[in-house]
Amino acid sequence: MASAVQQNVETWKAKLDKILHEKNGFTDLLEKVEQKTGVRRLYLAIGICITFRFKAVESTNKDDDTVWLIYWVVYSFFALLEFFTDIFLFWIPFYWLLKCIFLVWCMAPSSYNGSQVLYFRFIRPFILRYEKRIDSALDRASDAAKEVFGIAFKATKQAGEVAQDMANEAATDALKKQYMDNSAKTD
């Protein structure tokens, strides 16, 4: 059973990694950041998701969704931690049962909700300590994304112009050839 779960996790990782290597503006940005930092784009994408969820929880507009946002932030941190420690957790007896109990505790509608406890005691202080660095990194990533999209737009425009020029040249050559063939036939 554990090997089936591990296989599912590996399949999920492979699918996500494949998506993160498709060619588009976001993955091009991830590639640039990956090259500069040496951190795999899979981990960068997960970190970005966690950061945006943290920002949603800390927004000034507090609705009832804050409870669930806190849960998802805690779950994301847990999933990230589990990702790196998976090889060790595999050997813990009844790990999957313990994980299930932990997640139920994190979702429990009680005053001692696991997500609330973990978020306010551990995750929030950690993120707040590094918030300026995170915001700075997001600003740089945003600037890099704008630059990448600008380059991509210019390249697309140039490719379109080259294609149009090539099509016009091919049409002109075809017309010249047809004219020459018709002229040769009439002589």
Q: Please give the number of β-strands.
A: 0
- The secondary structure category is mainly alpha
Tell me what portion of residues adopts beta-strand conformation. Answer: under 5%
The number of helices is 7
> Level of helix content?
over 70%
Silhouette: elongated
H/E element string? HHHHHHH
| Total domain modules | 2
Question: Which spans of ≥5 residues are poorly predicted at pLDDT below 50?
Answer: none
- Rounded to an integer in angstroms, the radius of gyration calculated over CA atoms is 27 Å
**Mean pLDDT across all amino acids:** 83
Q: Major sheet: size, sense and barrel closure? A: none
Q: How far apart are the termini?
A: 84 Å
Task: Please describe what this structure looks like.
By secondary structure, the protein is mainly α. The protein folds into two domains: 2-129, no CATH class; 133-187. 85% of the residues lie in helices and 0% in strands. It contains seven helices and no strands. It has helices at 2-20, 25-37, 41-57, 65-89, 95-107, 114-129, 131-186. Helix 2 packs across helix 7 (131-186) and helix 3 packs antiparallel against helix 4 (65-89). The chain is elongated. The termini are far apart.
Draw up the topology in text.
Layout: H1 2-20, H2 25-37, H3 41-57, H4 65-89, H5 95-107, H6 114-129, H7 131-186
Helix pairs in contact: 2-7, 3-4, 4-5, 4-6
